[in-house]
Specification:
This is rRNA adenine N(6)-methyltransferase. Its EC number is 2.1.1.-. The protein has 354 residues and is α/β, with parallel strands linked by helices. The protein has two domains: 163 residues, Rossmann fold, CATH 3.40.50; 149 residues, Orthogonal Bundle (Helicase, Ruva Protein, domain 3), CATH 1.10.8.480. Strand 2 and strand 3 form a beta hairpin. Helix 1 packs parallel to helix 2 and helix 8 runs antiparallel to helix 9. The longest helix is centred in the middle third of the chain and has 20 residues. It is elongated and about 70 Å long. The chain starts with a strand and ends in a 6-residue tail after the last helix. The relative contact order is 0.11. The structure holds S-adenosylmethionine. The site of S-adenosylmethionine has 24 residues, from helix 2.
Length: 354
Amino acid sequence: MSSKGKGDGLRVAGGVQKKTNRKGANTGVSGLEFHKSKGQHILKNPLVVQAIVDKAGVKSTDVVLEIGPGTGNLTVKLLEKAKKVIAIELDPRMIIHGDFMRVELPYFDLCVANIPYNISSPLTFKLLAHRPAFRAAVIMYQHEFAMRLVAKPADPLYSRLAVNTQLLARVGKNNFRPPPKVDSSVVRIEPRHPPPPVNFMEWDGLVRLCFSRKNKTLGAIFRQANTLQALEANYRTYQALQGNGGGAAGADAAVGIQSLGTAAGDDDVAMDHDGADDDDDDAMTVDGGPASKAGGGAAGGRRRGGSRVSPEFKELVMKVLTDNGLDTNRSSKMSQEEFLNMLALFNAAGIHFA
Ligand SMILES: C[S@@+](CC[C@H](N)C(=O)[O-])C[C@H]1O[C@@H](n2cnc3c(N)ncnc32)[C@H](O)[C@@H]1O
């Protein structure tokens, strides 16, 4: 990673025009061979580069973060407008070197990038977890991923990815699809200020569970034995924590809290084929850890080996759903407000998802 100020004269490692080497590989004018595995699809049309920069609304005072500058064609345009461009590039043949997913991000006002598509989801959630929050990110994604980010309830592409992103940011597809290829779209992401007043881990535990079978009713999802077992374990742990006032025994109990949905989700998707996602399950990491496989795995283990759910606890869960008319809802059609409301209702009953 390195940064360049206006007029620093960024050295560019290669050209941007498509050429073919002797082996028929895709190369730039410098002869650099581009690697699909690194998501190296280079922007060749200067009008597209310019349009992305224009859409970003770069101010002369802005520190701009660029992910994957590649041969630097977007970078040089950003440098014309920004105070500073900090660019992070995985490929050591490109001048500025670093893995975006591993580096600690510096302060930035704006992020502008034509990203490697293979890390779209973790990259987006790394950005959204960054503090202080930036003003906006203008990102070129693969078209289908962009559509999933902006999908609304009842859209077939609506998923945990959309719900989580839209909880943390306002997301809008720019009215701009780069010609001539129609496989990319530019999305503008504006983190919400202030951030939503919700524990993201817990929110994600609930959403993950609900979208494990997004076309099933919530009643059916919450009646699953493994779900009830994991929820009851959390319920008991929270009760112990409250009883102990957060002391040493409370800390021991806290270790037992588990995130919901992962193992159930994985199995159910495999069994169900009902279009449930989420291929991005572990990517939506915010605040130092996803609803982890380990947590979900614990739930899965209990289901196979496990303890019984008390009838009283099952009744409590079902009561929250039925009293509030939620049992017949399907997550594929639920809005963010409905999820928030449901989480508040469960929490008020002492039921927790992480
Ligand atoms: C889609 S290309 C964009 C190149 C250039 N910005 C353009 O628009 O023509 C994505 C770039 O990201 C780089 N890249 C891939 N994975 C990365 C990572 N984890 N961290 C930083 N850069 C990465 C690739 O080497 C490639 O140069």
